[in-house]
Design brief:
It is a single chain. The protein is built from 22 helices and 12 strands. By secondary structure, it is an alpha/beta fold. The strands form 3 sheets. Strands 6-9-10-3-11-12 form a 6-stranded mixed beta sheet. A 4-stranded antiparallel beta sheet has the order 2-1-4-5, with no helix packed on it. Helix 2 runs antiparallel to helix 5. About 30% of the residues are buried. Bound molecules: 2'-deoxyguanosine-5'-triphosphate (DGT) and magnesium ion.
Amino acid sequence: MKSNTKQFPKNKIAWLWENMEGKRALYFVGILGTVLYNILQLTIPYFSGKIVDLFLTGENAATNLQVHRDLLYRLLFAMVGFTFLRVIVVYGSCMIYETVSQSVLYRVRNYLYDKLQRQDMTFYSTYRTGDLMTRQTGDLDAVRHMVAWVVRMVVESFSLFAAAAVFFLYTNWKLALCVLVISPFVFWIIYLFRNRVAPMHAALREKLAQMNTCAQENISGNRVVKAFAREDYEIEKFDRANTDYAETNKATGMVWLKFFPIVESIANLMPVVLLAVGGVFMIRGQLTMGDYVAFSGLIWAIANPMRQMGNIMNEFQRFSAASKKVMELYYSEPKIRDEENAVSHPERFEGKIEFDNVSFQYEDGDLPVLHNISFTAHPNETVAIMGETGCGKTSLINLIPRFYEPTEGQIRIDGIPVEQLKLYDLRKQIGLATQDVLLYSDTIEGNIAYGDDSIKMNEVVKFARYSAAADFISKMPEGYDTLVGERGVGLSGGQKQRISLARALAIRPSVLILDDTTSAVDMETEKQIQQSLRELDFPCTKIVIAQRISTTKTADKIIVLQNGYIEEMGTHEELMEKKGYYYELVKLQTGVDEL
Ligand code: DGT
Ligand code: MG
């Protein structure tokens, strides 16, 4: 298991840095490339200024052109050379940004997926699927964008600004100060903008998750939509989410438009200041024509970073909102995990299961669901659990593989409390066929061999036979190679249940848990399944939730639950004697008034 002990870092940038492991030096080279590229931007105005002063406007321009023509060529050649160099540097650094950002994306995406696999049931009932999908897609893309674009733009803007400012100050510090004096004002404006736009990006990100959730739920529930002819309603629902997202997007864009005119005016003011002040300086002879050309050729290097600030801040806030969501998942810890001194138990269990005064309540529930449950299932026994709907049967069996933790009491397998066992070893030994059958988009064979893909075809067939699925599978055009769609589309409810039973059996579990697994199969098929379960070629303790007396009758122990309490417990004969709930149920199911 990967380390689960990562600390939540102080900030998002530290987190990004952590995930750049192995690529940090390369990224640094990329940043240096950006700085270099922007410094090289200065070469053109510098050389143009020189050419103007020496060969076009200076006193000795004509003489210079004749005598120092080679210098003119050298200057021109240098301009072309530096331009090529700049292209190479920018190309290289772009490659680096892309490489590093993709590597961060890959690493974080895999890590998040790994995290998702290890989360417990409570996590999955807390987060919506659409929201989790958004974290894995849109949010992660904002993180990639930060590494590939935002950082580059920040470095570019600052280095360009700084390089130009230094060049200006070096060339003519008085004129430079006149031009630069307005720039701090822009930073203040950007700060105000940031405060306004940050909450908008957080809201925008939520709206995107809501829209994705809406789409995801609609796609997974398409059959219900069709059955109730609710297409129009669903379209309207999505339209609302889409409008909401679009409106919030627009509103976020509009925030910048409020600040944009001020920033743009300031940026446009700079050439005006340069023209006015520079003109005066030239008249007074404090500035050469060449220097003026260099200034005006570079004034964009001061103005553009200012214009770019709004964009950068917008993207940074998008990253900020998205990375918060990604990091929440990145550092989330399942509550149920291996204890520090968890016991390894790679070998099979004998299969003795003890519930010792177990009570349970869902974290988000108001009332306890199970109360003081105590019973023992001995190795190889079958324990049937019955009771009306909602009485806590599924909740009870979910405690055995530690999907949830009991609030009181203890569950032991072979005398070892389940919480002391390594989760992997515990779950690997439990074959579970859940109440809601979920099959994967795979072949029938792939689905049966899901828990142990090393099993051979003849074994897949054997387990299909155990679960009375072999007949209908062999009648399918492609047999075991038939592809079943997402969630087992293309199969009947009873067929899906039987494949899910075969899948649970295929791992040869020491404990088999069946949650209403034969509810959708006919009586005759169910009888076959019961027979096979008694004749399994490996020892196995079975906990079977069922409603039909035909299933529970032969169990070694029948537990009748009512409102989370054990109402009755015993064999079929004992419970019949007792003439309680079970007895009434038998009467009801057999249609006989007196037994
Ligand atoms: P069934 O399958 O309809 O025959 O019913 P059972 O007996 O399997 O009932 P079960 O264990 O699923 O539910 C027992 C109670 O717990 C019921 O009132 C619903 C509630 N419950 C079930 N799952 C959750 C959950 O994830 N969170 C919360 N808060 N309550 C739950
Ligand atoms: Mg249930």
